[in-house]
Amino acid sequence: MSSLSTNFLIKEAKLFNYFKNELTENHIWITGKSKVFLLLTLLSILSILVGAFGQLMGMEINSVSLFITLGVILSFVFTRISDYLSINYALIHYPDYSPLLKKSFFKRTNKQNFLRAYRSDKLNDKLLEPDFQNIDIDTLIEYYKNSSNSLTAKKWWPVTLTAVIAFPVWSESVAVLISSGSRIEEKMAMALALLVVSFSITFLISSVKTALESILLMHSIELSEMAKLLELIKIARLNSINNPT
Q1: Which pLDDT tens digit goes with each residue over 6-64?
Q2: Separation between Cα atoms, residue 178 and residue 189, nearest integer Å
Q3: pTM across the whole model
Q4: pLDDT tens for residues 176-227?
Q5: 120-138 mean pLDDT
Q6: Contact 217, 156 (CB under 8 A)
Q7: How far is CA 37 from CA 68, 74, 77, 83, 110, in A?
Q8: Angle between helix 61-93 and 111-127 (nearest 10)
């Protein structure tokens, strides 16, 4: 490996480690109180799962409804409290970014705007340090994009293959179940039941997909985010040149 390549990879690794260690949500604005309410949110979601499992096990409908209703309400409330505390912390410690933050219990704030603005500013400061001044930002963007795409393709193909195999099996099962009814009323009831099950499975698949992405694609997501932040820095720099203050 040439010295130029070695130099680039060393600088890239330092920059990426700075992003991972210093610019995480946990480091920026997740306080101890926020973590408590995030934990309570997880417990509330668990109560929803308990209610769904209880329905399958034949629990009384009132008990099932109570578990699910309480779980939905409490998970919403605890999530909003956690977000509210984080935003309040950011407004106090990062007042320059207050236009991007709205402290409201009921109206959800787009946290990504604040996080990307803050992270891009910090990364820009890092790039201005002597160790990074000779590195080309376009090269970094291309490197992080290619690395993210390559890693995603490598780790996500088993999930895609499973979905391709499972979909026709599910379709065939639905067709068999509907055709098993002897009367129109039975077929309609079966179709309605399968529709409800399909919505439930869709929600479950969405949750599983999010969990799998967090497990399998975390590094890929971080690389992609780095590329987006560097693109934002590039745009901001060009804007400052074209519109000097």
Answers
A1: 888 899 999 999 999 999 888 887 777 777 777 777 777 676 666 655 554 555 555 55
A2: 9
A3: 0.67
A4: 555 655 566 555 555 555 555 555 556 556 656 666 666 767 888 899 999 9
A5: 91
A6: yes
A7: 19, 10, 9, 9, 19
A8: 40
Percent of the chain with pLDDT over 70: 61
**Can you read off the two tokens belonging to residue 48?**
């929803």
Identity at 117, one-letter amino acid code: A
Query: Rounded to whole angstroms, what are the CA distances from 159 to 9, 162, 175?
Result: 31, 5, 24
Q: Is the pLDDT of residue 5 over 70?
A: yes
